[in-house]
Amino acid sequence: MKLLFKRNILAIIIFSFYFFVGILTFKDYGVGIEEHFQRSSGFYWLNYILQFTDFDNLKTIIENKILEIKDFNPNLPPVEIAKNYGIVFDLPAAFIESIFNIDEPQDYFHLRHFLNYTFFFISGIFFYNILQKRFSNNFIALLGSFFYLLSPRIYGNSFFDGKDLFFLSILTVTIFFYFKFENRKTIFNLIIFALFSALATSSRIVGIIIPITFLIIIFFEILGKGNKAEHFKFIFLYIFSYFIFLFLHWPYLWTLNFYDFLNFFETFRVTAFPIVLFNGEFWDANHLPIRYLPIWILISTPVLFLILFFIGISNYLKRVFIRILNIKETSIKNDFWSGLREKKDFFIFLNFLQIIMMYLSIKLTLFGGWRHFLFLNFFLAYFASFANYLIYLKIRKRKIIRLICLFLFFTFISEVVYKLYIYHPYQSLYFNNLLSDNKKKLYEVDTQSLSRSDGIKEIIKDNKENGVITIATASWTPLHNGRSLIKKKYWDNLIFSGTSNKSKADYIYTNYYYEVDVRYNKKYQIPENFYLYKRLTLDNTVVYSIYKKNKN
Amino acid sequence: MKIFIYKTLIISFLIFILFHLTVGYTIRSFETRFFNTFSKEKINYVKDKIREEIKNSISKERILEEEDAKNLGKFIDKIINEIQSEKK
Question: Residues A523, A474: contact at Cβ < 8 Å?
């Protein structure tokens, strides 16, 4: 067993198995609510960049793709409303789709799912490496990678969420390259780190915390002992290459004028103002209670991960507190860390602290659970691994306690794997055991409208005569976009009547996701001439329902 | 100098956290309560409810009790008289 750990053989086997499971199942996932827009964004920017080149054939393909998107969904918001969306995932996906002539909707959405999952998997390997270097223990690194890769909401999103989950992946890779730079302070490593910092920033503007943290760390180093000239050289090189990379890879910046740069951060404000169901109450998305994010994390992350995270972060805070108490005017070591490993912890901690400060001070528009903050999974898994390490140091010489702990870990992780299995392919809707079954209906569930393709498939299955059927929607879901994962031969038989005239439809689909307070607004009420035909419930969480018209 | 910078940073940070956990939290709670109490949905609901009640009342044979109608009539007459006498 020791040999398996020593040579990473066990890790290789487990990671291969994990990837294999993803490859076998990535076609099971529905199309996410933002995927059509993101695909459109990818082609928009690819077309924009190609204007500076002579690739005429490719230009024609892209133009046809853009026309096809408009034809398929005339109501899709134009890319111009969110030009600041990063292109790191969408543009390469659009390029691959064009180069390989992938024209079937099912194929290009599956391709996106495959790419997103693969990149998340690769980030998992980077995370393993981060932990391995930090704790010098392959078992702790493997366990931490489980936390990172197996958290059900994260795993589920890793297939279709090319924005929030992709940002988590790129954040992990960026931190890996920061650690690499810390291990070997070469200019090459610094430039690679700057490159990934720029990619993280364009993927989600919150990625800007990484350069800020890096500069704070160097500032502390300058305050302490060390080669000040070298530090200033690193600052200059990092900032210079960071902005160069940012500008080079983010065509949105090419379109801005001086005035736009002055209001740069304003454009990142979310302009949608839906009503959000949270803890049984309907809230304005702009005025959510401060407990919104912590409670979402508490109810949708496996309990073991949460317990370990709290142990890890509280111990780390204690360590920082002691360091602050012991600060002296002159000291050999740095004031906030001693040694490279602690410096890495401090880097992660500073990033985490900035996110807390940002959450407390900026009024954010949030909806759809904690999907905008899924990148916090990195910090949860890191500090949980830190707790694992502390526990390991305490029990390593006590064989019986060590065995008991191993058994407990194994049991908890088996439970998580079991939940991954029973939720499939809706792991992104997972609730943990802290939330009782009757309280699950107090929270939004299918916020990504993942179930719409499955809903349509169920309706097609029931339409045995193969006639034309009208499907209405009783939730805030663009159901017609769910066609993308349905075979084209069925498209002509489906009429999507939207949310109005529900009583005239043959079927009504709802995933109980609303943008209005349904206690007062009756626009999504199911007409009386319909009966419940099918309901999908997973782990006592209602995912979607289909109502069928009563023929009598 | 170094100690001074650290102290400034730590105190600023603590003030920031303290402010947001006390004053900031209270302001945000009031704001949240205010905006969620007077949401567009609720106002529209109340409007619709009033409209509905008026429609229901119109369809009824009588809206007011006989005695209430008498008293209200007298009351309105009195007010009109008083206003008119003031105008003169």
Answer: no
Q: State how far the alpha carbon of A357 is from the alpha carbons of A170, A335, B8, B13, in Å.
A: 22, 22, 17, 9
Contacts of A520 in chain B (CB under 8 A): 41-42, 44-45
* Look-up of token digits 């007459």: B77
Q: CA-to-CA distance for A439 and A444, rounded, in angstroms?
A: 11
The answer to whether A432 touches A302, Cβ cutoff 8 Å, is yes
Collect all residues of chain A within an 8 Å Cβ-Cβ radius of residue B25.
290
Q: Are strands A507-510 and A469-473 parallel, antiparallel or unpaired?
A: parallel
A324 to chain B, any CB pair closer than 8 A? The answer is yes
Give the pLDDT confidence score for residue A2 in this predicted structure: 64
Is the pLDDT reported for residue A5 higher than 80? no
| Predicted TM-score of the model (pTM) | 0.92
Mean pLDDT of A81-101: 94
Interface A–B counts its CB contacts (< 8 A) at 57
Q: Which of A236, A245, A126, A130 is nearest to A187 (CA)?
A: A236
DSSP assignments along B42-55, one per residue: HHHHHHHHHHHHHH
Q: How far apart are CA A375 and CA A212, in angstroms?
A: 17
User: What are the chain B neighbours of A324 within 8 Å (beta carbons)?
Assistant: 6, 10
Confidence of residue B64 (pLDDT cuts 50, 70, 90): confident
Q: Cβ of A114: how many Cβ atoms within 10 Å?
A: 16
Q: Contact, A384 vs A413, CB < 8 A? A: no
Distance CA A29, CA A158 (A): 10
